[in-house]
User: Fold this.
Amino acid sequence: MDYDAIGLVSGLEIHQQLDTRTKLFCGCPTVVRPVEEHNGEFCRYLRATASELGEIDRAAEEEMKQVRRFRYLAYDTTCLVENDDEPPSPLNEEALEVTLEVARTFGMTPIEQIHVMRKLVIDGSNTSGFQRTALVAVGGVLPNGGVVESICLEEEAAQRVEESCFSLDRLGIPLVEITTSPCLRTPEEVQETAAYIGMVLRSTGKVKRGIGTIRQDLNVSIRDGARVEIKGVQELDLIAEVVRREVARQQGLLAIRGELLARGATVEDGATDVTDLFRGTKSSVLKKAPVVLALRLRGFAGLVGRELQPGRRLGSELSDYAKKCGVGGIFHTDELPAYGVTADEVARLRHELGAADEDCVVLVAAPRQIAECAVRQVVRRARLAFEGVPEETRKMLEGGSSAYMRPLPGAARMYPETDVLPVAITPERWSAVRAPELLTEREKRYAAEYDLSASTAHQLAYSERLPLFEQAVGCGLQPGLASRTVLATLKELSRDGVDIGLITDDQVIAVLRAVEAERAAKEAVPDLLRAVADGATVGEALAACAPAVTGEDLAAIVKRIVAERADFVRERGMGALGPLMGVVMAEVRGSADGKKVAGLLKDAIARVLG
Assistant:
């Protein structure tokens, strides 16, 4: 597709959790706990507050269409700040320092005095009804010539456990937000830029890793379309596909707008109560509903069922809006008869509403108040179809499609935080900030400095266990042994069901030191680490898995084993080396280096062969 021709413009918002000792505004640790470990809970209702100008943000107003009771799970690692029962502590200096390092990498200009703001959020993810955020720096540059508009430091939201239940362990973890300008012109460029920013963040060595610790929000628009923000893209490899699908959706909506205008389509206010029409229906949804309301959309036939993205149609868009009122979804005549609704019932429905063949009828089944709210939402979204593409915040669905969440927020969303003092970034402090060594440069250095292959150096630089490798070579351990342990041994143990999280970095270093000191063979490393994971100390593991064998003892063992198998040696010649290696290594149980054993065996075999 020619993305220049359709006027694709895209930007990124990258949200990355920082791996700091404490949260952004309290002294709680930044650990995420299993839900079953919560030791308390409470409930809240959230409502939007007006800005300083007396305005209510349109996105927050949308969230208030449903009155919801939110339930929060607390832990012994959370406190009254997360509960919103205690004022926040001063801004976390460790988190701010990491943010400044990232800003330095992009060549940004820091804000002289950092002020914390409140960002209105009443979807339940913040107990206070707002998220604290601070603008730290502006005006950075990307390698492709793009612009990093801003970098902010903010608190992570609570993690949703169920529809209206949130876990407070994640709330308050420091989160850096990097926003680019709308400077990206192809789906591939968006994905490549996200990968580069992610690499810069990981280069600090102070970010959390794993699913959910980094999220990408995409801003996408095409010519004659509108800016749409797609939130929560967690998989880097899906970014380009998300952009492509949003482009297709906007193109589809623009085509639908053209057809609606050409048809002279209209959307009426109000709906017709058709509950009695479906008294005997076989549709369980309609039959059990207190009220069934029907809305006629003149000239919409065939368009409500038109696919915009894989698995998504204009009817899906109407349904997304209706769900804000608490309904499970809608039916429409572009997809009926189906779901237990018969062709005869569809015909009677059309007759009841006076719907012509070119009209589409939407059905909403729910308690009356909810159903009437849902109909108003369907009317609202149907009228937006005449404008083409509405400005929206959307959530990513599996595979790369998206669903409506709320309108784009406006300026009324932000207001000052009065409980946190400003932080000054003096010229002296800024001049002392150093950009981290980028992982791309680090892998080049590893290859040259430690004589590692390009592939091994790349894997190490991007590995979650990078600090362990750095610690190992910093202690003077062999880079080859350290890299094999980090990249292969620990991964293989994990695949075998060993909980490697029970093995500390210091214990790994102690095992490798024992190998370097010839107290154990490198072949014994997996067994030693397995024993440590089972609860043994490194000393106990060495005694059990790699008992000491002197050079004289090893020579005697090799001599005996070769002598006992002299006929086999004469038959196979040097081909006996491999099988005999296995016999010797099994007997010494990892206490001798393989190279040393091989050398002794070669000499012993040569003597037998004469």
Q: What stands out?
A: The chain has 21 helices and 24 strands.
